[in-house]
Amino acid sequence: MKSNVPETFGSMVFNDSIMRDKLPKDVYRSLRKTIEDGKDLDLAVANVVAIAMKDWAIEQGATHYTHWFQPLTGITAEKHDSFISPQVDGRIIMEFSGKNLIKGEPDASSFPSGGLRATFEARGYTTWDPTSYAFVKDGVLCIPTAFCSYGGETLDKKTPLLRSMEAISEQAMRVVRLFGNTDVKKINPTVGAEQEYFLIDESVYKKRKDLFYCGRTLFGAPSPKGQEMSDHYFGAIKPRISAFMRELNEELWKLGILAKTEHNEASPAQHELAPIFTTANISVDHNQLTMEIMKNVARHHGMVCLLHEKPFHGVNGSGKHNNWSLSTDTGVNLLNPGKSPHENAQFLLFLVAVIKAVDEYQDLLRYSVAYAGNDNRLGGDEAPPTVMSMFIGDDLAAVLESIENGTDYDAQTSKIEIGVHVLPSFTKDTTDRNRTSPFAFTGNKFEFRSPGASQSISSPNVVLNTIVAEELRQFADELEKADDFTDALNDLIKRTIKEHKRILFNGDGYSEEWRKEAKKRGLLSLPSAVDAFETFLAPKNVELFKRHKIFTEAEMVSRYEISLDTYVKILRIEALTMVNMSHKQILPAVNRYISELSETLQRKTNVANAYNMATSDMPHMMEQELIVRLSGLQDQAYQQALDLAAKVEQTSGVHDALKAARIYRDEIIPAMNGLRASCDEMEVYTPSDRWPFPTYGSVLFSVD
Length: 704
Ligand code: ADP
Ligand code: MG
Known about the structure:
704 residues; alpha+beta; Ubiquitin-like (UB roll); Creatine Kinase, Chain A, domain 2; Four Helix Bundle (Hemerythrin (Met), subunit A); six-stranded mixed β-sheet; 23 helices; binds adenosine-5'-diphosphate; binds magnesium ion
């Protein structure tokens, strides 16, 4: 089947050109105004938009509509309503009003609220985000919306993101104005999220309860071959995978998602998709859709897409590199080193604002990626360490050093003076080599590499936007008051470098030396998600989010409670799945094998007896040794499973969320690891056809 990409691209999106086409001029203009300036849309306009949207959606095969929103579960939610409306004469018409478009009232009682919503008031509201276009998916018109409680508290991932985008625009505007810029009206954070994922065959997936219930393997001895040959990374793409990628791209393109690059990743069965960057909130919406569509399309090809951060022990897990920058509405990337001294001065100010932000809010950045699944990945030798630091490349580091100390930049140029000199041009290559840093400057954007593959990228971007907004606010306050702008700017940049350079690290982030060095520099170490959750409500963080009107304190408390609760729930399901697999599958299977061995042993002994051999003359019997070894491991695993189940049961009675999360971190995870070790060892000595579910090798190499 041939497809015409330019023609299908965005064909399922009620985008700008469709709106211009379908809406009366004045209606189009006031809708644009709402989109650009955040002005409220009046009902008369909304009514006209709704009818045009419905007619268009019906042409695309839609029969239903939904307010598509992002509750704090981390996935998207939709409740379909059909357009049909019965008439007195028994016929039906297809109806959709401005009211339906602007506001929805779903029953919110089953979404996490962290205690914000009293149980007697189950109502919640969804309100249209006109900055993200409506689209048709599976015969349903989806309207991107924000979700809040009856009392107006946010219960979703979109609202704080939109607020943080306003905050950073407001503060960044103050800064660019200081540099004499008058034509810019708005500054948008831009985001491009590289998505990693695994594809495995459906048949092996269905046979493993751990994959089925938890999205990751909880048992499994290493396969003889893993990723050590580096033969998968960027390797030729298998026909089944490429058929999947083709369909995926087509589906994404129809929804206006700018899927751009695709390749095999480091682990067997691992792949990556990167889109072209766009405005932060659209990028977040698109990433949520991308994850959903990846899962659906995989099924069409008899495969299952795993988005878990660490589906397999011993091979690389999956992350989501969040590329982030700031762009003016006139199309200038503010993190692009400029071509004139003036542009460079502005670039350096934005650069040091990000440096200061990452240093002062290490805890929030860590918090924004804290998730039970991601704990299995961060801090290993494959993903950034849990200690935040920032890579800017040697060239830029030398520039900052020259500024800080007033020393010569290199042998060719003298010292760099802000506002006087053009920055030496450094090639992109030298800024993008370090893959071990959690937060890297890659030439004209920052790449935050800690987010996990399954998580929404809303929180990392809320945090990034807000912390950088805060530093820009402080900078603008100082510079607006200055008598001599250039002097004040020089002083500010120099001082910021001096005070925050401890966060800069260009070396190997996986090394033991860095662990020691980071400690010496006083950088925050928050190894587990629970450690990170605990920092969220620190007074400085509450102050920050309140100042920029991102969260009220009550909203922060609710998010904190939900984070802890989710952590406990995920681990509880994992622990119970392990107990279940061990009692119902592993131990009985090993038992059957032991009885088989015993039978063989008995037969061999009978033969020996028949030949009148003395016991001491009997050949050394493998069965005997295996029975002893496996029985020992069985007893051990049985006891470990009992203890684990008891511990989980006991912790269900702990109602303090933080206390419960700590018990999971400190006692239940080690108990899970213990049970796994015993079972994995039994697997090593048990024939594959007796093992009750597919082994690592057969799962990792299941797609041929
Ligand atoms: P690589 O990291 O492989 O060198 P690129 O740097 O071109 O590739 O892009 C990686 C990701 O970063 C892509 O998703 C891309 O769209 C995104 N990206 C590029 N420029 C920006 C920007 N200014 N803002 C946000 N994301 C960006
Ligand atoms: Mg990249």
